[in-house]
Amino acid sequence: MSFYIAVIRSNPISYDARAIKIIQSLSKKYKVIVLGWDREAIYGPFEFIGRNTIIKRFKLRAPYGKIQLVLFYPLFWTWVLINLFIYRPKIVHACDLDSLVPCYVFKVLFPTKLVFDNFDRYAMAFIPPKHHMLYKFVNWLEALLAYRSDALITVSKERLLSFGRYRPKHTEVIMNCPKDKPEMLKLSLGSKKHANEDLTLVYAGVISVKRGLHLIERALREMEGVRLILAGRVIDDIVGQLTRNPKIKYVGLLNYDAALKLQALADAIPILYDPSIPINRVANPNKLFEAMMLGVPVITNVCNEIVNEVGCGLVVEYDSSSVRDAILRLKNNPSLRKTMGARGRMAFEKIYNWSLMEKKLIRLYSQLLTE
């Protein structure tokens, strides 16, 4: 089978919302081979999606977000290079720096186009600034490889500006907007509660100390009539600590549709990012746009400009007191929740939806293949 596009991602793909949307959009026009890394060793080595897409997984247990991960990368990169040599795609779509390295080597060795899709700036996300030399080197390497790619995709204008003058000929901002799912919106609208009922908060994402979950836990300690449901991949071992609070429940790692269904049942969705982490200052989380699609208000300390402009939630400081005040305000005012949810849904329909992002993606690919 001859593939036009190879998409490379260092996770199993199954729960990666952005990667799945990109793959599904590209497969509408092209044959796609997806090379992923099954770090939990729980997924099948192959998965067929329709007639145009195959997911192939490198099965090797490895941690997320740990320094020892550098010992595993050469094995993954070698596997990626071997498969790229076998399939010889016309365009390689590398998701983040840890996938970009072998893809750039392939571009040097063979005539192919390279698209760098920057989900996260690697140094900003994973290397503490106190390690100044390492931080600076990784940032420089990422910018250099981005410049030598044929196209650079980022999730926001702010992220694009972080590359400074290191930009290739083609650049595009493709935000983390979801596809519309009317059945999820219907479920969401049918589940909303009144002032005298418990308020349900849902967080479906990476379970990490960097995502403000401890702030919510503190806020809930002396608050009645509020519960928090957690779902997602555990990076830091904090689930036990959080669930000691009887108002918090962890339901495991869910696939994308199951996570959306859970969020549809929420009265509010918290989106909190530790601002001491450089990447969090330019965060553009898909959870914000999923909440808009579902008509659910957010409580957040990121994307302040979008949230305030749309009026789809409450902007807070990164502390438990501010979070508690926001939760109480939404709990005691169901009409405010309804208004904010409706504003978010309207903005989703007009601006922040995947249909518009997909058009940008397909246009970029058409330009690259024409060249």
Describe this structure in words.
The chain has 371 residues and is an alpha/beta fold. The protein has two domains: 5-175 and 354-370, Rossmann fold; 182-350, Glycogen Phosphorylase B (Rossmann fold). Helix content is 42%, strand content 18%. The strands form three sheets. It has an eight-stranded mixed β-sheet with strand order 3-4-2-1-5-6-7-8, sandwiched between helices. α2 crosses α3 (97-109) and α8 packs across α13 (320-331). It is globular. The mean pLDDT is 92.
Following the backbone from N to C, one meets helices and strands in this order, namely EHEEEHEHEHHEHEHEHEHEHEHEHEHHH
Strand content: 15-25%
* Fraction of helical residues: 40-55%
CATH fold call of the largest domain:
Rossmann fold
Number of domains: 2
- What's the total count of β strands? 14
CATH class of the largest domain: Alpha Beta
Q: Uncertain runs with pLDDT below 50, 5 residues or more?
A: none
- Cα-to-Cα separation, first versus last residue: 23 Å
- What CATH architecture label of the largest domain applies? 3-Layer(aba) Sandwich
